[in-house]
Amino acid sequence: MEKYEIVSKRTLADRVNEYVVYAPSVARHCLAGQFVILRVDDDGERVPFTVCDYDRAVGTVSILVQEVGYTTMKLAETKVGDRLADFVGPLGNPTDLSAYKRILLVGGGIGAAVIYPQAKQLFSENRAADVVLGARNVSLVMYEEEFRKYCKNFHLITDDGSSGRKGFVTDIVRELLEKGVGYDAVFAVGPLGMMRAVCNVTREFGVHTVVSMNSLMVDGTGMCGCCRITVGGKIRYACIDGPEFDGHEVDFDEAASRAVMYREAEKEHVCRLRGTAK
């Protein structure tokens, strides 16, 4: 039986931690774009997280977790050497960019965790991608040095200009496309608004664009229906049909509406957990 020991833990931003978990059976099979489901303890809930790195040789899988709810708060309390009750995967469909030669990876905020393994994989295949990394400010910039190592051209931009350029990822995407850089595909991951904005730009230039809808997943098996979205006029589920889809076919208005449906209830729940409820 695997022990699912946390062998490394580091804070990359405020309330954002990277966990490296010993899970050789998962590491042996996982690919970029897939996710795992974990339970912190035997009484914990099942929560999905995207694989942001893996090492088959030592049997580890890395995940990037933002502290936003009960399980992520409990996970934040763990220490190196602690063991998770469950760490199941890989689940979901791996990213397939094999048909494209010139690729632009665009990450916003914690979306860096999803495009990072893509950058590593493409680099290992001698198809190094260009990377645009965006964040609200310098404190939320993640994996900068790693991206610089594993990409062809790196572009950093923050909303307030505290690191890299000042502006939004779409500013750079538009500039690159207007310059005539011949991208075959763009892979964008981040907040729904960011992904929609990137798709609006790439649609003008006719560039195929893939987005990850992993942030909508809860159950991870298709039974809860929380990640139900409309793609190309058809109902799809991010956990079993995705998590990645043609961004030009995703109904972002519907997805955004579903994403905020329980926001107030979630805030109240977190306040109760932290003892700050009025």
Can you give a write-up of this model?
Helices cover 29% and strands 29% of the residues. The chain has 278 residues and is α/β, with parallel strands linked by helices. The chain has a domain at 6-91: Beta Barrel (Elongation Factor Tu (Ef-tu), domain 3).
Order of helices and strands: EEHEEEHEEHEHEEHEHEEEHEHH
CATH superfamily of the domain at 6-91: Translation factors
Radius of gyration: 18 Å
Q: Largest beta sheet, briefly? A: 7 strands, mixed
Secondary structure category: alpha/beta
CATH architecture of the domain at 6-91: Beta Barrel
The CATH class designation of the domain at 6-91 is: Mainly Beta
Concise description?
The chain contains 9 helices and 15 strands.
What are the defining features of this structure?
alpha/beta, about 280 residues, about 30% helix, 9 helices, Elongation Factor Tu (Ef-tu), domain 3, globular
Please render the helix and strand layout as text.
Layout: E1 6-13, E2 16-22, H1 24-29, E3 35-39, E4 47-55, E5 60-66, H2 70-76, E6 86-91, E7 103-108, H3 112-124, E8 130-135, H4 144-150, E9 154-158, E10 165-166, H5 169-178, E11 185-189, H6 192-205, E12 208-212, E13 228-231, E14 234-237, H7 238-241, E15 244-246, H8 252-259, H9 263-274
Parallel strand pairs: 7-8, 7-11, 8-9, 9-10, 11-12
Antiparallel strand pairs: 1-2, 2-5, 3-4, 3-6, 4-5, 12-15, 13-14
